[in-house]
Amino acid sequence: MPNLEKQRVYQLVGGGLLCVVVLGSGIAKALLDRQTANSARLFQVGTELQTGTVQVNDINVLKALPANKRTEKLTAIAQGKETIARSRARYLLANELLQQNQPQKALEQLDKLETSYPVMAPHILLKRAQAYQQAGDTAKATSTRQEVVKQYPHDPATAEALYELGKIDPALWDQAIAQFPAHPRSVEIAQQRLQKNPNQPQLLMVIARHGLYLENYTKILDRIVEQYKDQLRPEDWEAIAFGYWEKQAYGKAGEAYARAPFTARNAYRTARGLQLGEKPGSTEAYLRMIQAFPTNKDTGLALIRVSKLVDAQQAIAYLDQAISQFPDRAGEALLQKSKVLDELNNSQAATLSRQILLSRYGKSDAAAELRWDMAQKAVAAGDVSTAIQWASPIPIENSDSEHAPEATFWLGKWASQLGKQNEARKAFETVLSRYPQSYYAWRSAAMLGWDVGDFSTVRQLKPVVVRPADRPTLPAGSKALQELYHLGQDQDAWKVWQTEFENPMQPTVAEQFTDGLMRQSVGDNLDGIFMVSYLSQRDVPAEQDQYKALKQNIDYWYALYPFPYLEQIEKWSQERQLNPLLVTALIRQESRFTPDIKSSAGAVGLMQVMPDTATWIAQNIKLREYQLDNPEDNIKLGTWYLDYTHEEYANNSMLAVASYNAGPGAVGDWVAQKGLSDPDQFVESIPYSETRGYVKSVFENYWNYLRLYNPQISQKLAQVAKDHPTVQ
After folding, report:
1. What is the pTM for the complete model shown?
2. Which pLDDT value is given to residue 56?
């Protein structure tokens, strides 16, 4: 029965080999060393759980304990020798006692704690004030908060103190907004004041600039635009535009960027936003940008984008401009030019453009796209040898392109079909070595006979999962932020980060990764995963180097593939006899672990269950009451349906997953038309592009959870990386 072991297994941590794509086997060795260190660390944690000697550094372990046991452990550590562990335990214990409404005992733990724990001094004072307030001593609570304001006037903790003090003296709320506008308490003040007097555009702009996390944020932006557009400054429009862009309201973002300061970035986003939002004026906006910023790096992309919006003759002129002025975009422009020339029935000129692309810009992503397109056409014509000729340069000339993993995998498949088993094995091992994060790495592992499951067997697997014992180190932020995060005081840490994160419009690589981690820590996995994954889009060379360095850190990959709701997933996967990593992979794809998310079609929750489908499932399992935005209920219903789709297709997980997305009727038709003689070819030929991408993404997710958290697969990948080093 496919389930995770209910008791946590503490052994070698898996994963971390992806950086061999660019940095070779030396990094693989470094990460193997990291695994060895983690092995000892996790064995220690397992022993601590058995013997009751958990240390305050083991935040994940402490949080997993029942409240009474956690208090007991913290009390024991707090009574020990004067160490940083003792100070941390006293702070955490005080927090626990306040939650248990025991203020006097909390005050005992907080007494003079700031002396031995100076990095947390302002937060210790805040906890002390909270304890006094809880004990009914309002005077001491007030004086302690005033002490925070006086001693730490620039610390984010002061915003918390001003918020409480401002309930009596409203002028202090003004001070909080003026001094700490990004602090969530200031945003809360703005909201409260707007409830009493809605006609305060300056407070609405506080929310527009700093309230991105609010559930009704987009509605607030709409309100500002509708009611106060004539009062807004260009800088206000830029903040509003950025907010719309972050919420993927691209049409509204484009319209707002058109009123923002006329910079190259804003000009490009005006055009792109209008285009994505299907608003009028995108062509004119691109042309304004091209004329005003002829040498800006984004202008090359603007030329290519506008070429797709004008007639063919105009398109050629813009593409020629991109080719001559922007070498980094020349390959993409040449490929697009060849397509336009084909439309004009100028096959000779189109062929020449493709020849120039391959001869002069053969290492570009566009060259990889052309090669792979030609390889696919050859296969469709039954000419595997020609397909191999077109695809073979991709792993060599275009090793960083998105087509490289796919091309390398299919080179292995085609070699196998031709009876060249050694070449096939080498190709599959190359995929695992260079592109271990890819869907095609999973397919390659299956082809090599690894115990990773195939389309027809993945449901039955019982993968052991080992999660890291320690939290990652934040690459940005103050020492106080680092400490709060380390202690698992996530809400407090997140509030501090909101104040310290000064430039969310153009964050550094370190800041963006930190922001992703902070969002995940408070349950915002949707935006948290996005912030981490979007780091791959950095195009400034120095930032690309920083991103590559970050990818060497296993914590980067853990952040991309987190494990929220593991207990519920384990429970219902076991009940439905489903591989829990497959369920986790599907949830990540459906909702990014967001329990209250709703799709435009009406699907709700973690597993995006349609209300009508939920009603039908509930009748089948005799479930009378449920809430689709409740994680427990949603996973209960969603796993039943995933089990149902498996039963419909004889436990073929590829068809079950496709059916989960597209519906059983469509999948049944595809099987009837195409057959399943080659399941890999079947996946590539799924006629719905959304479902085709969905199937690949779900199984890519599954593979990444397996390779990152399963020790056996992690070690096998490490060995492949060692045997097949990749030199940059």
Report:
1. 0.91
2. 53
